[in-house]
Amino acid sequence: MRRSILAFALLALAAGTAEAQGRGKGNGNGNKVPPGLAKKGGLPPGQAKKLYRADDGVVVLRDVFGRNGYTVVRTVPEGDRRFVYYRGADGVVRRAVVAPGEERPSFTNVPRAVLEQIWSRLY
């Protein structure tokens, strides 16, 4: 009885050490995620691409418009874009379009001086 238990223990120990030796190229591990990142569940900070939403741009646009004497009349969501209606010093209502982007939100129909202030606030 002792011999069979001892033989079983030696067999299990030998099989365990044989599995631990598979560190070569052909170990069958198709996962290319480094071991340190596999535990954390993703990319390290600063490596993932950020998607800038249109709402992020609208917040900054409203603030910069207010500082430059423009009055925001209303904001209308349209899909993933936002239409911002604003009134200038001449009293005419105009429409600015804010769309999402990977590098930064895009702004259309915004005065150049205001656009430069928006870029400096965002980045």
Explain what this protein looks like in three dimensions:
- The chain has 123 residues and is of the alpha+beta class.
- The protein has a domain at 54-122: Bacterial toxin RNase RnlA/LsoA, N-terminal domain (TATA-Binding Protein), CATH 3.30.310.
- 40% of the residues lie in helices and 20% in strands.
- It has helices at residues 2-19, 35-40, 54-67, 112-122; strands at residues 71-78, 81-87, 93-99, 106-108.
- The chain has a four-stranded antiparallel β-sheet, with helices on one face.
- The longest helix has 18 residues, at 2-19.
- It is rod-shaped and about 100 Å long.
- The N and C termini lie far apart (76 Å).
- The mean pLDDT is 78.
Give structural attributes.
single chain; 123 residues; alpha+beta; TATA-Binding Protein; 40% helix
Number of E-state strands: 4
The main pleated sheet reads as: 4 strands, antiparallel
Give the spatial strand order of the biggest sheet: 1-2-3-4
Principal-axes geometry comes out as rod-shaped
| Helix-strand makeup class | alpha+beta
Backbone CA Rg: 30 Å
User: How much beta, percentage-wise?
Assistant: 15-25%
Low-confidence stretches: none
Give the C-level CATH assignment of the domain at 54-122.
Alpha Beta
Can you give the helix content as a percent range?
A: 25-40%
Look up the CATH topology of the domain at 54-122.
Answer: TATA-Binding Protein
Number of helices: 4
- Mean residue pLDDT: 78
The oligomerization state is single chain
Q: CA-to-CA gap between the ends?
A: 76 Å
Please identify which CATH superfamily of the domain at 54-122 we are dealing with.
Bacterial toxin RNase RnlA/LsoA, N-terminal domain
Give the H and E element order: HHHEEEEH
The name of the CATH architecture of the domain at 54-122 is 2-Layer Sandwich
